[in-house]
Amino acid sequence: MAEFAAVEFRIDRRSGVATYLQIVQQTKQALRLGVLEPGDRLPTAREVVEATAINPNTVLKAYRELEREGLVEARRGLGTFVRRTLGSAAATTDPPLRAELTEWTRRARAAGLDKDDVSALFNDVLDSTFKGDQDS
């Protein structure tokens, strides 16, 4: 029997990112971090609507996009289930790496950086680190 996934979508209406894309991005993050695994059932559209006060069609659009990407599958009358995961096991099985990143984030906050500053800095370093990989 598939397990109900413990994923809670958080919608930021001020982010400028379409609501359905926020659901897609948060689902992909949960897949990368091992929060969602193959066989897990995503919350129903009704459950997401009740928790976030968004339009049910928005949830369905996000789930259709995830299905189009082969990450989930809708089973009529049963729900939407995870088909495959993303990322590597190292993202969830390397506590020292996570601890280092947590410490770095704390230092960044102590230096006066807010979440957007940290994100911009991290993404800049990430982009420059993986720049050569994109050419392959």
Task: Give a quick set of tags describing it.
136 residues; single chain; mainly alpha
Instruction: Give the helix proportion (percent range).
Output: 40-55%
Q: By helix and strand content, what is the structural category? A: mainly alpha
What fraction strand?
Answer: 5-15%
Count of DSSP H/I helices = 6
State the distance separating the first and last CA atoms: 41 Å
| SS elements, strand count | 2
Main pleated-sheet profile: 2 strands, antiparallel
C-alpha Rg, in Å? Answer: 17 Å
Tell me, rounded to a whole number, the average pLDDT: 87
Strand order of the largest sheet: 1-2
- Which residue ranges are poorly predicted, with pLDDT under 50 across at least 5 consecutive positions? none
Principal-axis shape: globular
SSE run: HHHEEHHH
Molecular structure report:
The chain is mainly alpha-helical and 136 residues long. 51% of the residues lie in helices and 6% in strands. It contains six helices and two strands, in the order αααββααα. The protein has a two-stranded antiparallel ribbon with strand order 1-2. β1 (72-75) and β2 form a beta hairpin. The protein is globular and about 50 Å long. The termini are far apart.
Q: In summary, what is this structure?
A:
This protein has helices at 19-32, 45-52, 56-68, 90-93, 95-110, 115-129, and strands spanning 72-75, 79-82. The protein has 136 residues and is mainly α. A two-stranded antiparallel sheet has the order 1-2.
